[in-house]
Amino acid sequence: MATSHYFNNFSAVKINEQRMYEDLLVESIRIMGHDIYYLPREEWDDTDLVFGENMSSRFERAYQMEMYIANVDGFEGDNEFFTKFGLEIREGSNFIVTKRAFDKYVPSSITIRPREGDLIYFPLNNKLFEIKFVEHEAIFYQLGALQTFDLTCELFEYNNEVFNTGIPLIDDKQKDITFNMSDFALKTESGLALSDED
What we know:
Layout: H1 15-32, E1 34-39, E2 42-43, E3 57-59, E4 63-69, E5 76-83, E6 86-98, H2 99-105, E7 119-122, E8 127-135, E9 148-155, E10 162-163, H3 168-177
Parallel strand pairs: 3-10
Antiparallel strand pairs: 1-4, 1-7, 2-3, 4-6, 5-6, 6-9, 7-8, 8-9
């Protein structure tokens, strides 16, 4: 026995209902959400031949869009705890962004969906979060379509990435968290580091 064709919510005929539901999601995120920056990761061709990982990443673009913070009670995760290596802070957060907003602000030549490893900058608390998982089927085919991305994020751990987005709030974060001595070196007007007294 087949399903009823009178109440079939998954056909292409229901495009008006899908748009209306997406409009409601976009409007509710614009009302209750926050303006958050999405930073796509760009990698240099500097692959470590032993471990097979790329050691050099940079963030040169930042796209501002509205997102909703799913966990309203505070940050999730393990929070602060001591390990044998010292204090670790593992704060996490979940962000929800509509596909329409993501397609509107991020060019499709960059990416068609949020990627694991990209960053989220949250201006309210001035923190960077790394996307650990992107759930693209979070609201499981409501009215036959997928309208949102659910981003599971953790607090970003800096590993010599370069920030050059053109937004001072984000680019200055590198100076706060870096251990690279060349970032604090005296430089000429052209930006070259002074290496000796001459």
